[in-house]
Amino acid sequence: GDSVTQMEGPVTLSEEAFLTINCTYTATGYPSLFWYVQYPGEGLQLLLKATKADDKGSNKGFEATYRKETTSFHLEKGSVQVSDSAVYFCALSALTGGGADGLTFGKGTHLIIQP
Amino acid sequence: DTEVTQTPKHLVMGMTNKKSLKCEQHMGHRAMYWYKQKAKKPPELMFVYSYEKLSINESVPSRFSPECPNSSLLNLHLHALQPEDSALYLCASSQFDTDTGELFFGEGSRLTVL
Q1: What are the CA-CA distances from residue B2 to residues A91, A92, B108 (Å)?
Q2: What pLDDT, in 10s, does the model give residues B50-93?
Q3: Beta carbons of A98 and B104 less than 8 Å apart
Q4: Record: contact B33-A99, CB cut-off 8 A
Q5: Which among A49, A100, A108 has the least Cβ separation from residue B31?
Q6: Are the CB atoms for B74 and B23 separated by under 8 Å?
Q7: Nearest CA in chain A to B5
Q8: Which of A19, A102, B9, B52 has the fewest other C-beta atoms within 10 Å?
Q9: Lowest mean pLDDT among A3-7, A25-29, A99-103, B44-48
Q10: Are A34 and A46 contacting, i.e. CB atoms less than 8 angstroms apart?
Q11: Which of A44, A87, A97 is opposite residue B105, by nearest beta carbon?
């Protein structure tokens, strides 16, 4: 079956440090890939997405590139802020062309940014 | 309107109570989902409705009863729950005919069972 593997953390960084959170996946076909973020006490928000190989998703200074050859979708940010402290979930959808069966999530990475 | 609205935000109930969680979206999405999330864990899929019909039930105990009265509303009826059912319950929706599979999530209902 489909699966997503990501570093679990917690990952603790100082403000303005460079961030990488690794994510690799296993899926048949050509899945869509997502990063969702969950701030304390809140639901999940879509951070960025990519739907085909070599696509780069970006939002709020975060970037991730869909690498089919390495089955990866690593999340990066050049300079993190305290407000980026949250849990980050890598996820995939194996559906193409319609349907509904939810997302396959990684276990989540708890990111802590210290001032 | 790109929101999924869940009520109540917080709910405390005893093991003999009957309560309901509600979810509403006005994006015209024809797929709606219930997820359960325990602390420090990823969301776990419970139910999927496609065009107001239950299409996926992930072997959820019968004390959880979903209902989709129309294309905009999704309910989760709760009865005789156990303390281990305490969790954040997330509702989500998506377009059915989509090339991306993106889900839109609500803020969640935090349930405590005493």
Answers
A1: 20, 21, 16
A2: 999 999 999 999 999 999 999 999 999 999 999 999 999 999 99
A3: no
A4: no
A5: A100
A6: yes
A7: A43
A8: B9
A9: A99-103
A10: yes
A11: A44
